Amino acid sequence: MAEYARRVHAKGPVICLNMFCYVLLIFCTVLSVSGEEPGNFLAQKDAPDAANQGDRINPKFGLRQNMGSGNQPLYEQTNPGRRQIPPDVGIKTDARNNVLLASHPDCMEDVVMLCNATVMRMNNFAILDCLQQDGAVQARVSEKCQHLVWEYKQNLTKDDRFESGVNEVCKKVFEENPECHALPAGVGQRIPCLIEVMDNVTDPGCHRFLTKMANIVFGDYQLVWHFMENCKDDINSFKCGRLDNDSDKMHSQGKTILCLARQIGMLKNPECRKQVLRVAELQSDDYHMDRSLYYACRDAREMFCGQVHSGNGKVFECLFKNKMHPEMPSKCKDLLQVRQKLIAEDVKVEKSFYDACHADIIKNKCIAGMDTAGGHAQRSTILLCLENGLKQGFKPAGECMTQMSLLRKSLMEDYQITPEIVSNCGLEIDKFCRTQAGLDEQGGTIHCLMQMANPRERDRKNQKDHPHAKDPREDFRPECKAALEDLLKEADVAEDASVDGVLMTACSKMINGECKGKIRTELMNCLIENIDADDMTEPCEDKLIEIQYFIVRDFRLDADLYKQCHEDAVNLCKAPNDWWANKGNKATAETDPDVFPCLYRHLPNKLQEHKQAMMDHDDNDDDEEEFKPDELPNPLSRQCEQEVRRVMRHRAKSIDLEPSLEAKCLTDLAVLCSDLEHYGQGKKLKCLQDKYEDIDDKKCKAEVRKFIRDEDEDLDLDTILMKACTPMIKSFCEGILDNNADASNVMNCLIENKNHRDMNSKCKAGIEHHQIIQMKDYTFSHKFREACKKDVLEHCRTSKTKADVVSCLSEIVRNNILLEQTHNISQDCREVLKIDLLQMSENINLDPALKQACGDDLKQFCKGNHNDDGQATECLRENKKSLSAECHKKVFKRQLDEVNLDADFSLFRTCKQMIKKHCSHKDNQDMLSCLKQHLDELGHDDPCKKMVLKRAMESTKDYRMNPKLAKACRRDIPKFCKEDLQHQKEGEEFEGQIINCLKKQFTKKALSNDCADEIRLVIKESHMDINMDPVLMRQCRIEIRSLCQDALGEHDVDRDQLLFQPQNTDTRVKTCLEEKFKDGKIELKSNCGMEIARWQLEVQIDVHIDPELNQLCTMDLVKWCREYETGQGQTMSCLLQTLEDYPNKLKPECKKVLERRKTLWELAAKVAPVESLSEVHEMIMQSPARHYLLGVHVTILGIIFVLGITCGRVTKRVTKTKEFHVSEECHEKNVLVKREVVL
């Protein structure tokens, strides 16, 4: 109080000016203390002083009346000690001779008619309340009575003995506050001092004294000292004066104060503004003091606040809570809005809030340094200051928190109580929100403005209103957007969603469902987490997006993010230290969003990526974020990292929540994604991903590319996928989750189980969408990009899509394998390349080039098998002969890639159990061989068996489909099959020609050992299954159909589909062909006969090649030929020698098959005779009877020699004709000898 006294002495006139209305208030209250009327109080105590000063007491009211001109009083005093009543007026008095308004002839009839209560007529204040209770009653009061009441109030407030009444009534309070009593009397300083401590006044008489007079004082601005001189210009400027000659009407001049209050933010004179706010502060304790509001809200008070006791601003608080209720009278609502506008200018006008938060305001130094001239502090500044303290860990008191929530709620309910919204958003409200009925209810206008702040929403609205306009977008001023941002900071909706009535109403289903039980601070996050849930309603989603549109553009509006990342944001991203910095700054929306991207760049994985990019400085990746070198060692804290990832998950749910992406893609969104049927609410991001190739704007394309990359690194960002696949991940991938698997491992797990019978169809669709998007650019896949980036830049820089990159890299890998070169592609890249090939084989949609080339073929041959479980590509394989040239070429290239990179999806899927049981220890390159070894364990109709045989048959058509053979014969093929290689076009199959060429060389023992070993396996398989010999099948197609129809069964030789397996039906087709060949029904020199002959000669090299012979002669081979080396024809020669020497000692079955084979070999020899002496020598040296044969050969040569000599002598004596005959005879003998040796 000493400090206050000092300030009073220093600024006494100013305080007196501001507080004189309190003096007026106190005076009238004093007069009513203890039932004593104003007239009696003044008459008894102050009449002598009045007489001595030359003034007269007005007998009308018991107050002094100044002398008129000529110093003649208006009413003479007949008795100076007592008031005299004019003889012409029958004015009644009470027992103390107090003049009563009810007895005055000017008001008698009005009181009788309007205030028909005997008790009320004996109390002037009760009569005042009665006559001024509302507009309807006032309208019925006569002009004379109105003038009488006006004079009564005016004289009451201007009496110079006002302060003496205060000294009498508030004596005890002066004693408790000596600082106030010490101030000089008569200069208007004592009362302002008491007002400063009025909240602490406990004396009921003094408190009632101060309170009751307010009902009179605040009814007319002319009763407030110096109000007129301070506010004259503003009254004229805003036309707040009364021009209807009713200035004497009771309470009418109070409308002038109300008019100025409506314009509080635009008043020109600061002193007038102080006067209006000070009046509002004085009224804040009891709503009765605000007479306009009191009369307008009488019914509302009874309806909504009947149980609320007046005082301490409680009635105001109750009325504010119910302001937006449908039954709230419009007049009352209007005046409540006016009062809330005053609260915006001076928080003290809201008494409940200021009293509850006063200590916290002081503790947080919310007023220090603020422009608080006149003691006024703006609501927004105080509220933001308290919220700033809250976010820094200084939690306000419980009652203050409650009042803060109520104040926030009122802000979100009514835009008109926020001056910045009114002044900065007027054009936007008129343009976008006036035509929508009911928007003012529960804050609809604020949500309308938030919606229209989104440029895409404005586009949608304007296109609807102006469909033919070229550029219908209308501007939304930065000032309005900044005002909305400030409002959301004040309301802090992210911290407490319950303050937004519109949101709570729209989301009631979710709040009572998925988010039931969530506390207020958790509610917003819960709603956002479920924004794409099945139970989410469209209105709730819309309102969430409207709020989140602003929250994501200022990291401070996200309470959890700010709490965990504030320190990192300040240190790493140059964010302001105070939560409430930049209030009202129009640039806020352009600068603050930089904070979150900066935090995102400091995620550990992003820093690692940039570090790698710096190491690979030659890569020239223009999509990498730029860092300064000193930023790299500073990753985010663990808590902040978790919050950043949470926010990223939320942002991925809608493009409206991705500020940079939305801003850069507005045009492309309008052009590409206007189809609401396919790309409605929440699907714009999916649209941009689907139509990535069609995006024109480079900046937009770069942002979409960045978002897709982020999605791959964090599957939670792929909301479509995670919404459907979270249960599937728990079901199928729980094992890898326990090992902290990264996103790529989880994705691979989902892909592997995509076609499982328990897989959710929506999850499968999400997986396929994720895969398809990744195929648009190889950089979309984090794992692929990291593994293959260098290889792509070195070998496939011109490739655009990931499918093109995979094709390019696969070809390099294939060539390295076939040519047995050192791999040019890194091991890591080859591993991920294999995974991608498997995925492309599984779904043709993942290979756009193949799908485009084979579109017509798919429709013709593969209806219903377009993209399920590898069926489309498998169908194309089965119909390969019938495909168009371009499609055939693509399918064959795919086959080569799958074989050489061990990425045969259909084989691995179909034989998954067999691989797990028998071949899990094998390398993928040996997988097919391993499976073939265990075919006997499978049934005839087993899908795996059919698939293995199909793949084996495909491998016989082109040596490149058999990597091991291609590698082993890499030198033999150019040496022996050069002509076949030259005649083949690039990208076409050899249809078994190269392998057939190698088979012929095998029979001649011309192949290298490695190549011979591999071709022997191929020959053996072809003898077990005629399908494995494509050349024979092709050359003998007619013969098989015409001669072996009974043995053909289901097999269709016109297709590459295996429907018949001869080894399971006693090789009937093979046997049939051999029998027809032996019987001469197949010509020896025909194409089919030549192939059958070649078939027979292959068996001569290795008995084990012929399954029938090997099976029936096993015991004889062991008995007679075990010392001979297999694979060089010696074993077969041994059996033939045994057949000739000991025919009866062989097993009957073996003897029979040997005799049949011998006949076939003789026929084969006729088809393919010995072509050189070297072949004869080789055959003899390999025979077990080579010594005998050599002896015979030498004898024959001796005979030939003798014959030659003899024939030579004869030629001298014969004619040339005879000589010719002799020579011919000799030649025939030589041929017969050679054939005998061969046999």
TrEMBL record:
Top-rank taxon of the source lineage equals Eukaryota
Q: What does the record say about its membrane topology?
A: Single-pass type I membrane protein
Record-annotated membrane-spanning stretches: 12-33, 1188-1208
Residue stretches of biased makeup (Acidic residues): 618-628
GO MF annotation terms: fibroblast growth factor binding
Keywords from the named record: Glycoprotein, Membrane, Repeat, Signal, Transmembrane, Transmembrane helix
Residue ranges annotated as compositionally biased, kind Basic and acidic residues, are: 455-475
Q: GO cellular component annotations, sorted alphabetically?
A: Golgi membrane
Where do the Cys-rich GLG repeats lie? 267-327, 635-696, 758-817, 824-884, 939-1006, 1083-1143
Q: Which PROSITE patterns match?
A: GLG1_C_RICH (PS51289)
Q: Where is this region: Disordered?
A: 454-475, 613-635
Q: Where in the cell is it found?
A: Membrane
Write one Pfam family the protein is assigned to: Cys_rich_FGFR
Primary location class: membrane
What is the name of this protein?
Answer: Golgi apparatus protein 1
